[in-house]
Amino acid sequence: MRTTTPHQHSPHAHGPTAHPHADAIQAQVLDLDAKVMADHVDAVIEWMPVHSAPTRIVDLGAGTGAGTFALLHAFPDAVVTAVDSSAEHLELLRDRARRDGLDDRIRTLQVDLDAADWPDLGRPDLVWASASMHHLADPDRALRTVRDALGDKGLLVVLELSGLPRFLSPDTPEGPPGLEKRCHAALEPSASARMPHRGSDWAPKLTAAGLEVAAHLALDIAIDSTENEAIGPYALAALTGLRRAGAELLPAEDLAALDELLDTTSPHSILSRSDLTLRTTRFVWAARRPDTDEADEADEADEADEADDPFSPAAEAANCERVLGSRRHGLDSTV
Ligand SMILES: C[S@@+](CC[C@H](N)C(=O)[O-])C[C@H]1O[C@@H](n2cnc3c(N)ncnc32)[C@H](O)[C@@H]1O
């Protein structure tokens, strides 16, 4: 495993590296999200309209490696370059790579993706950016850099979130109903100021960067705590973050309600609740460089096999529906 640390890294206000402790908390949330969302990530990987199995993959804003490891398992001949500004996240990713015996297939690069010049990423055939683009101050420039790096048949896959994940039913706790919704509303202004691109429609951004959107997908996710034992710990970590961020913003009644839910020794602890459901919507865009002659030839060859091609226009809708039963939206109306 090759490691480059640090490369063109500079402190920035947008990523979590502004506060080292925040990195540790985010790492915990990322690992829990990876556990809960593993099937969905695998389904997105299966859905991606790649022309052939990618061998050179770049994971932008890789975090602790949710995407990196899923991609390595899906594509056994691939190597992944995991890029992130957080030294701590990359260290955790390398630890896991060593444990899983995958370190010879991973290179890590500590890079601030808001920097004007990136290190050489080679000619990747897949660039994966999951929940990372909205952290950037200038994602438009980052997308142009990705376009320049991609090969003719290369694919960029951008995954983004609709907002913070929700776990509680609206009448939880019994005292002040709508607690989680109020917490999210209270934190929204500062989150929007720090990450103005959060919740964007990425299709126009991809087009403006000189890429063509090949496919998009919206996954409405609802996972019950009885289906996945990581939902409780994930809810605990997420609400711990809300409690910390909302300390100065939330009314005393809500802070007290949060404290009770977060007290793992209390019978009212969030870990004792059987009514937790993770609700979130994840959006996915797959984009590539516009057709070149070479790509046209490949497309002509592909047309001959269209009946068997799972990514032909006709098959695409069926594929989208197939992704864990999630429904496909026109993104204009949902982003
Ligand atoms: C929400 S996490 C997503 C991590 C991972 N892709 C996943 O799906 O679990 C966002 C990641 O982007 C990284 N990040 C934020 N700003 C960045 C920047 N300017 N340059 C590089 N990485 C950045 C963070 O350190 C973090 O690991």
UniProtKB/TrEMBL annotation:
Superkingdom of source: Bacteria
Keyword RNA-binding: no
Location of the region described as Disordered in the Swiss-Prot/TrEMBL record: 1-20, 289-335
Compositionally biased intervals (Acidic residues): 293-309
Keyword annotations from UniProtKB, A to Z: Methyltransferase, Transferase
MF annotations from Gene Ontology: methyltransferase activity
GO term, biological process aspect, one: methylation
Gene3D superfamilies assigned to the protein according to its UniProt record, in alphabetical order: Vaccinia Virus protein VP39
Domain Methyltransferase type: 58-156
PANTHER family from the UniProt entry: TRANS-ACONITATE 2-METHYLTRANSFERASE, TRANS-ACONITATE 2-METHYLTRANSFERASE-RELATED
Name this protein carries in UniProt: SAM-dependent methyltransferase
Top-level taxonomy: Bacteria, Bacillati, Actinomycetota, Actinomycetes, Micrococcales
